[in-house]
Design goal:
By secondary structure, the protein is an alpha/beta fold. The protein has three domains: about 35-80, 434 Repressor (Amino-terminal Domain) (Orthogonal Bundle), CATH 1.10.260.40; about 90-195 and about 325-350, 3-Layer(aba) Sandwich (Rossmann fold), CATH 3.40.50; about 195-320, Rossmann fold (3-Layer(aba) Sandwich), CATH 3.40.50.2300. The chain has twelve helices and twelve strands. The strands form two sheets. A six-stranded parallel sheet has the order 2-1-3-4-5-11, with helices on both faces. It has a six-stranded mixed sheet with strand order 7-6-8-9-10-12, sandwiched between helices. α1 packs across α2 (about 50-55), α6 packs across α7 (about 160-170) and α8 runs parallel beside α9. The chain is elongated.
Length: about 375
């Protein structure tokens, strides 16, 4: 064990008499306002060694909790930011995060991507974006290979589909990697939106309104979130010992929701439908109007994702809201933990969803 006092844990340092460097400027020295704060400035102000300040800046181990919090607060007070070029020279990797982005299918996709870019910038990282032209394992493997060759610090995969999961598991890149996912057990760090739980709660709400069962318009089956939403729908119905309502698979588009609606609504026993996204729910509402099924009088509808237009439909659409702006920061946190060596392969952050009830749901009419 090293005897160098700079390497010891420093929780017991008396900081009562310390104040941030730069509050007074000695004659003949440059003003703090004329240059950015350095790591040495942070260390001096926090009463720790430069080595300890560096460990905190790089999310390293060996620093006590109280000391870490003190150093982080000084970094905020002094406006300290790491120099990306210097860090790249030390680590041999650019201070860049690679992003693999699946073809977008909803307005929320752009919000998710933006949340990642903002979180990366806040952490002092640039981003390089690869948008997949095809959703298959070969395209994913090619994208992973290009980013790995570019020596990015970490790769964030915004492609919650089965081919992406298979490509990641088979390729096992030696670059830290984080996935957006709808389940667990991939063997890589993941940010999980609990689609199953959200669908269960939405379906349960319809059953509690008095509907005998609930039909489902599912998303494209290669998307894991479509499978998890269908699983939550099934679980809610089974939990109430109800007969499972009919299921029709769509492809996330209004056209597929319209076609599914024409198929489902010929059955007068269908009084409630959980739709796997709001775009398909728009198509379902069009089919209901065409067939003379009043919403919510004859038919209750709940969508998913709470698109910006959903509250302005006629009637306003009930929907499951997912805070996609939380997904990006969570992915960046996990990625940087991997870069620093503080993260593990099964690390997972869960982002919850919430049901927003509007005027598209009601108790079913009971005909006498």
């Amino acid at each position: 064990m090293s005897s160098d006092p700079r390497d010891r844990r420093e929780d017991d340092v008396d900081v009562s008499g310390l104040k941030p460097a730069g509050l007074s400027t000695p004659v003949g020295r440059p003003s703090r306002a004329l240059r950015p704060a350095s790591l040495a400035d942070v260390a001096a102000a926090a009463g720790v060694s430069v080595m300890t300040a560096s460990r905190v800046a790089n999310n390293g181990s060996g620093v006590g909790g109280a000391t870490r919090e003190r150093v982080l607060q000084v970094m905020v007070d002094l406006g300290y930011r790491q120099n990306p070029t210097a860090k790249a020279l030390r680590t041999g990797r650019r201070s860049t995060l690679g992003i693999i982005f699946a073809p977008p299918t909803s307005p929320k996709a752009s919000a998710l991507l933006r949340s990642v870019e903002v979180a990366a910038a806040d952490a002092g990282y640039d981003v390089t974006l690869t948008t997949l032209r095809a959703l298959d394992e070969r395209a994913l493997a090619d994208a992973l290979g290009r980013l790995q060759a570019a020596r990015v610090a970490a790769i964030l995969v915004l492609a919650p589909q089965m081919p992406a999961a298979r490509a990641v598991q088979e390729m096992a890149p030696d670059v830290p990697l984080v996935m957006e996912w709808g389940g667990i057990g991939l063997g890589v760090p993941t940010v999980v939106v609990d689609h199953r739980k959200a669908a269960l709660e939405a379906t349960t709400h319809l059953l509690e309104l008095g509907h005998d069962t609930v039909a489902h318009i599912a998303g494209a089956p290669q998307w894991n979130l479509a499978l998890w939403r269908a699983e939550g729908w099934r679980e809610a119905i089974a939990g109430r010992s109800r007969a499972e309502g009919p299921l029709v698979a769509g492809d996330w588009t209004p056209r597929s929701g319209y076609a599914a609606g024409l198929e489902l609504l010929t059955n007068s026993q269908v009084t409630a439908v959980l739709v796997a996204n709001d775009a398909m729910a728009v198509g379902l509402l069009a089919a209901a109007r065409e067939l003379g099924r009043a919403v919510p009088g004859d038919l209750s509808v709940i969508g998913f994702d709470d698109d910006p237009t959903s509250a302005f439909l006629d009637p306003p659409l009930s929907s499951v809201r997912i805070d996609f702006e939380r997904v990006g920061p969570a992915m960046v946190r996990l990625a940087l933990a991997q870069v620093s060596g503080a993260g593990g392969p099964e690390d997972c952050e869960v982002v919850d969803a919430s049901l927003i009830v509007r005027e598209s749901v009601a108790s079913p009419r009971r005909h006498t």
